[in-house]
Amino acid sequence: MEAFPHTFEIVGREGARLRRLEEDDWPIELALARTEDVPRWTMYPADLDEDGARLRAARNVRAADGGHGIRYVIEQDGRALGTAGFGRSDEGFELFYALLPEGRGRGLVTAAVEAMVGWLREQGEPLVRLSTLDGNAASEAVAERSGFRRERSGTHVDNRPLTVWLLPLAEPA
After folding, report:
1. Which residues belong to any copy of the N-acetyltransferase domain (predicted)?
2. pTM for this structure?
């Protein structure tokens, strides 16, 4: 597998791109954690403070450098609107994303997911997953628009019910 790309242009969304999250991007981590519905539907901790946001950004940089996963800043016209990325697990790669309210409804996450899926497909990955916490209709819609199918139900590490979605990337033999 090639090194994770530092940027992706988001096709069909003028001025939009994904760029690798760096340590000085901690303000978007803090902004997402302080957005009321983001901690409810994601892994962002509601009690994140500036020190925690700086640590979170630094951990993400180390994970990307180590090839374990990568978090990108979703930008449009130079403004940070959220994050998206993927992490490696024993079962392959899993995608994740979160947007500030002002970035929603533009198709940015769906286009970001499709860009990341395209790159993973080019790398020969056989499949990719994403998880949505039950009741997160917006995230479920992203999964469906991007071609994912419901694989199974499960429980989040904090005991919240979730759905695991699967997208096969390789053509069946």
Report:
1. 16-171
2. 0.94
